[in-house]
Amino acid sequence: MWWGYSAPLDLRCEIEEKEDTSESLEVLTIGACDARHIVKTLASSYKHSDRSITYHIIEPTMEQVARSILLLSTCLDKDLGLQEATRYYLEIMGNTLLRPATAKYLAKHSKLLADTVTRTIDCPWLNLEKLKHKDRDQLEWIFKFWERATREGVPIVDYWDRRIRKSLKTRYDYRDGVFDWDYHMILKPRGHLNLTIHEYRFWRNNGIAFTWIEGEPARSNPTLVNNIIPLGEGFLHYAYLGDVTNGPFFTWALNEEKENIKLRATDIAEREVMRVIHEIRTKEPFCEELVAAHRDPSILNGIIVTEMPNPEIEHDSWTKHNMSKKNESIPWVSIPNAKVIFHPVSSMELLKSRSEYQNKFDTIWVAHNMTKHLPNVVPLLKKKARMLIESRKYLSELRKEDLQNFTKELKSIAQENGLQEVKNFNSENHTLALFCNN
């Protein structure tokens, strides 16, 4: 629930461009989790005509809304160096443990984002007015919890281990064999060429996906815990309920072009995130030489971190200090032609009955686990516009017959709602299904 299972898209490429560029483009993403499509589309804006675009976002939980805002804000933070922002993004997105520098950034940034929700700090690209008051209150609680939990620590690795034990049951003592089977027999044959067995096994064991030689991850990442609610002067949360079988390798680390370069999934992800952050800032193509020269051939087939840190380091409490100065704000990159609007999850059943949203969107992207909402979403799509639906190709818990059933069910529900296939879709081979609204 914390990351997607398909590559980021430049949504402008999915929209038929018209000569009239005065009208704002409207796109809707449902359940994307990690803001990757917004980031990719912003980065590619220099390749298209100068046109304003409004991103409408629906996420199932407010924790996912908060993570999307945090990840997008990290990409737009001008105070961060290019590699610094890249690694902060990847660690926060996909690691249970953070390097101390990343944890300090998370604590400070979370406090500032909490002030953004209350409008103490103005955020020119973010619009939360569609959320209910209770949703905005919860969003503020989440950011405040992240700031406090980053300082005080949460036993995120213990939470992770509980999920693994519950998932594997009697196979827990033989978990390395289970991980190897999932990797060699499922993920590798389905096409993830750069994900190494060492990376995948290390992540399955402890939830750390992206590692580098500079610094060890030691502080817990509270953005991966669920159901955060305030209680007195503190907070309650449920622990970790996210993915423990597939990993965050299927967004920025997917290398479907099959380039003849031996890199880890971490290296591919770092290059691609660095590319989009550079292009957002400069409006120019990315030079491959900008990628840090840390790729020693001796480590390209493994991981950098080989041992977990002492748990006492993870739980060591940091003294609270003035994380942000009064009236301090985040120096975001200017994106005047973009606006990000978050809607409550309940709006999926309500928008179709509102005239201003009927036939409104130039394209709609839907996550693989949100397809049951297609009858509510299709009326929102413009005529002849595209509906993009994520596949389940990289879900290792699904077998061939499960993927075949998903393909049949998706085609059936699409046909019932007046959608026509643009390309023949098969969940075993494709990561995205393309439909057109008749």
TrEMBL record:
Q: Taking every annotated instance into account, which residue ranges of this chain make up the domain Dynein assembly factor 3 C-terminal? A: 126-422
Q: Where in the cell is it found?
A: Dynein axonemal particle
Ordered alphabetically, the record's keywords are:
Cilium biogenesis/degradation, Cytoplasm
Q: Which GO terms describe its biological process?
A: axonemal dynein complex assembly; motile cilium assembly
Domain named DUF4470: residues: 2-98
Recorded GO CC terms: dynein axonemal particle
Presence of keyword Cytoplasm: yes
Q: Using the record for this protein, list the coiled-coil segments as residue ranges, or answer none.
A: none
Q: Which family does it belong to?
A: Belongs to the DNAAF3 family.
Official protein name in the record: Dynein assembly factor 3, axonemal
Taxonomic lineage is: Eukaryota, Metazoa, Ecdysozoa, Arthropoda, Hexapoda
